[in-house]
Amino acid sequence: MVTKDDVSSIATLCDVGIDEDEMEQFTEQFSDILAFWSTLDELTESDESGKNSNISNVFREDIAVPSLSQEQALSNTDDATEGYFNAPRVM
């Protein structure tokens, strides 16, 4: 069971402000989430339901291929300077 103190501690660690009105709602939601995840404790390692042992990972060969030249990469832009794409400043 999650307590209001637990929710307050989590909010402090995450640097998130939680109003007293929201405290009860988050306490209930966190408790529900942990109750849901506790169902995983009921599974055993021998439980094979949902498994298909015929499936395996398939990897392809990692083959290096030539990429575009700088001129080809910039050929479709109207806004390039000194061999680079121009983009608006974020900050």
What does this structure look like?
- The protein has 91 residues and is mainly alpha-helical.
- 37% of the residues lie in helices and 4% in strands.
- The chain has a two-stranded antiparallel ribbon.
- A hairpin with a 2-residue loop joins β1 and β2.
Rg from alpha-carbon coordinates:
27 Å
Mean of all residue-level pLDDT scores: 85
The strands making up the biggest β-sheet line up spatially as 1-2
Succession of helices and strands: HHHEE
User: What is the number of E strands?
Assistant: 2
- Low-pLDDT runs of 5+ residues are none
Report the end-to-end length measured between terminal Cα atoms. 44 Å
How much of the sequence is in beta strands? under 5%
> What's the helix count?
3
Q: What percentage of residues falls in helices of 4 or more residues?
A: 25-40%
Morphology: flat
Biggest pleated-sheet summary:
2 strands, antiparallel
Structural class given helices, strands, pairing? mainly alpha
